[in-house]
Amino acid sequence: xxxxxxxxxxxSCSKSDCIVRITQIIVRLRLKSAGDLPEMNxxxxxxxxxxxxIFTACTPAGQPELEEPIDIxxxxxxxxxxxxxxxxxxxxxxxxxxxxxxxxxxxxxxxxNDHAEDPQAHExxxxxxxxxxxxQEKSSLPVLDKKLMTQGVSRLLELxxxxxxxxxxxxxxxxxxxxxxxxxxxxQAMQSEVAETYLNLARxxxxxxxxxxxxxxxxxxxxxxxxxxxxxxxxPSLLGSYLAANTVYALIFHENPTGLRNPETDTADIEIxxxxxxxxxxxxxxxxxxxxx
Length: 293
Hints:
globular; 53% helix; 5-stranded parallel beta sheet; alpha/beta
C-alpha cells in the first residue's frame, strides 16, 4: 500500500480535479470491498493517505515554492536607465522563479553625491525598507574625483543603510577607447583603475560590490568583437545591459543565470546570451568572497 513518487505524479492535478478523482477512488474502493471488512480497512488506510497528500499531490508538477518579494532600489544615472537595466534584471529574476519589486532612481549626469542632495532621493530611499540598494556612480568620478565619489557613497550609506539592507556598489565598465584626458590611453588601463577604485571603496565601507566591469572585461577577452557599448563608446548596448543584469543576478541570488531570457533580449543570439550568462557566473560565483564583506 505504498504511495510512490510515480503515484504522486499520476495524481498531480488541480484542487477541483483532485476532489473529483478522490471521490471516484472512494466509490471504486467501496464497491470493491463491499462485504469484506479487512479489505475495507485497507481501503480506508489508502483513503487517509490520499487525503494527507492532497496538498502536495494536487500541486502542479515542478511548481516552485512561493517566496517573499525582494525590494531592490537602483540609484544611478543614464548607465542605469539606458535599455532599462532594472527591468532587464527583473525579467531575469522572473525567469529564474524569483519574486522582486524593482524601483529605479536614475537621472542623466547625476553622481551619487547629487542624489544625496536631492530631496526626491531622500523620499524614495526612506519610503521603503529596501532589501538591496544598488549604487551606480557617475562614470568619470572613479578616475577624476575619488574624494567626491567617496563623499556620495558615504552620504547615501547614512541615508539608506539599515540592519536588513544590503548596499551594493555597481562597478561599471570603462570607456571603449579609454580616458586619455586622465592619462588612460585605452580601455584596459581605465578598466583597471575603475576596478581598483571600486574594490578599495567597498573594502573601506565594508559593503558589497557588483563586478559588472570585470564581467565586461572577461567577455571582451573571450570575444573582442562583442558590441557591449552603444555608438558613443560609453553607454551600454542592449547586450552590455544584459551582461550587467546577469552579473547583478548572480550576485544577489547566488545562482548561475545562464540561459535565463526575458522579452528585452528575445531577438538576440541565444549562443551569445548564454555565453554572457556563463561569464557573469564565472566572475561572481568563481570567487564570491571577493565581492562581499
